[in-house]
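Handout, section B. The chain below has 377 residues.
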Amino acid sequence: MKHFVDTLHISGIREFSEMYINKEDCIFLTIGEPDFNTPTEIKDALKLALDENHTHYPPICGNHELRQRIAKLESMSFFESYTENNVIITNGATEALILAMGVLLGHGDNVMIPTPCFPLYQTQALLTGAEVSNYDTSTHGFQLRYHEFSKHIKENTKVIVLASPNNPTGIVYDEESMITLHRLMEEHPDLYVIIDEVYRSMIYEGEYPSIRDYESTIDRVILVQSFSKTFAMTGWRVGYAVAQESLIKQMNAFHQNLVTGVATFIQEAAITALDVDTQFMLDEYDHRRKYLLKRLALMDVDYIRPEGAFYIFIDIRKYGMDSYTFCKQLADELGVVIIPGIFFGTEGFARISYGANMDSLENGLDRLDQFIREFCL
């Protein structure tokens, strides 16, 4: 593993943001984190768990009640009848992803990752010894189309990793994309899909097609989910994976060797979280989304219309700068920090997060408008 660890580096997203952490009067529309605080009910549940001394080792795979609740939740929207044996509690979705890749991938395997994407997918896959292939979706409306995508699936492709809604675009992979995935899985009996659904609760328009809608291939789907975005619990580091029981057993063995388990009292609070209504957060994100879409249209800035998550991927190709240059100059000149699209594997775009509050968004868009008028036209 040392060979691969030596090649790792800090995420370009965080590295770029930290360049400006000490710059005065900066507006950060960068990291994908809710600006809401964790709801009081969840914090109170944590305090009660501590007072009741839930501070001992947890079951390695996770709290039984929490796993049962998640199994029931994840069975509601799909035909599959999950049980707690299909669920493992992890240290955030990040650990769930590495566990999934770790039990599926090895030397000689190929993992296909549609881009733009969350950059850790690629580095985590490399840690398994697998080779990584990227597929640029920007030429097909940021969707998967069989006639093109199928050409990039190799004989040794073992896993496809994707997120819906997507980070950084906010698009939801449509029905045709799911048909494409399912068709490929039927054509390649050893092909698995890892679907990252951490933004699934944040959908503002349209339907949510899922690869889990197909019974014939459900055993080769691993769902990755997190409490971070839905419940404003990013710092709590709690997520989960749902998969066939044999895969969960393998992931549990890997999990035990990595972290032993997730803090007992945090899991107790996570049970309470599942009953908390967070619609007010979703309504506020949608309000911000609509504001940004209106402002960007008035500024004649092209963008990919987001259907979910809390990101807008703006198209900067007409300004004659690569994404790193555009974002660095914007931050240097006017103190607005957004993320270059190249960090997500797609040049010519930049990501704006509307996890920030309205004051920051309004001020940031005013400065972006000024920047485009003074430096790009």
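Note. Residues 45-273 form a domain with the Aspartate Aminotransferase; domain 2 fold (CATH 3.40.640.10). Compare this with the example in section A.
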